[in-house]
Amino acid sequence: MFVSLADNQDITRAGMMYVCQEFDGTVMHRAEDKTELIEQLRQQEEAVVILDYTLFDINDVEELEILHQRFPKVQWILFSVDLSNDFVRRVIAISSHFSVLLKESPIQEIRECLIYAQRHQRYICQRMTELLLAPQVSQMEEEVKLTPTEMEILKDIALGQTTKEIAERRFSSFHTVNTHRKNIFRKLGVNNVHEATKYALRAGLVDSAEYYI
After folding, report:
1. Quick one: pLDDT at residue 213?
2. Which residues contact 181 (CB under 8 A, 6 or more apart)?
3. pLDDT value at residue 120
4. HEC profile for 113-165?
5. Measured by CB atoms within 10 angstroms of the end CB, which terminus of the chain is less buried, N or C?
6. For residues 129-145, average pLDDT
7. Is the pLDDT at 160 greater than 80, yes or no?
8. Pick the residue with more confidence: 136 or 140?
9. What is the pLDDT of residue 99?
10. Who contacts 136 (Cβ-Cβ below 8 Å, separation ≥6)?
11. With 80 as the cut, is the pLDDT of residue 210 above it?
12. CA–CA separation, 167 and 176 (whole Å)
């Protein structure tokens, strides 16, 4: 089994490498960024990708779908701290090649997920399953709480700035701004820039005249 580890947290990588060593014949490679990940998948068309979506430089569900279409035999394990219900529903609707683990999952679930990936089967951890089955609270009933930094970045997004442009203006890294962007989308319950922009306009973060300039 070829495993591509697309996770930027040192402690998580070390733990996952420890678990994967239990599987005979497993070869692990770290993917530093999206470019390196794609190059690995070109060479290993049946790879298992362990992806921390929150921290890695993949922007949205649409991009994951494109990657799946490009590499249809790859098994994806989304391994993150926090994933919204809407995001998970959209991802698992793409293909059974997407599995979901939360980083709070016990080691036994991590082992089970890797076994399922070897068998080309989907695995959803217990906690995420419970969240998906829980009664849904409407967006209007749930108060959205953005941090001051997130509100500033949301305004920049609504005004058409790219993640790279926002990072340069704020003297931040691309990964930092991209993480803020994903957190904003998760909190707002939106999936793309267009929906986020509509929220920013409704909330008065962006003046309509300023938006249309």
Report:
1. 42
2. 59, 153, 157, 163
3. 94
4. HHHHHHCCCCCECHHHHHHHHCCCCCCCCCCCCCCHHHHHHHHHHHCCCCHHH
5. C
6. 67
7. yes
8. 136
9. 96
10. 85
11. no
12. 8
Tokens 């190059």 belong to which residue?
A: 39
Q: Residue 54: name the closest of 46, 39, 64, 67 by CA.
A: 64
pTM confidence score = 0.69
Inter-residue contact 12 to 103 (CB < 8 Å): yes
Lowest average pLDDT, out of 25-39, 76-90, 130-144, goes to 130-144
Tell the residue number behind the tokens 């930092």, with chain if given. 176
DSSP states of the chain as a string? Answer: -EEEEE---HHHHHHHHHHHTTSTT-EEEE--SHHHHHHHHHH-TT-EEEE-TTTSS---HHHHHHHHHHSTT-EEEEEES---HHHHHHHHHH-TTEEEEETTS-HHHHHHHHHHHHTT---B-HHHHHHHHSPPPPTTTS-----HHHHHHHHHHHTT--HHHHHHHHT--HHHHHHHHHHHHHHHT--SHHHHHHHHHHTTSS-HHHHH-
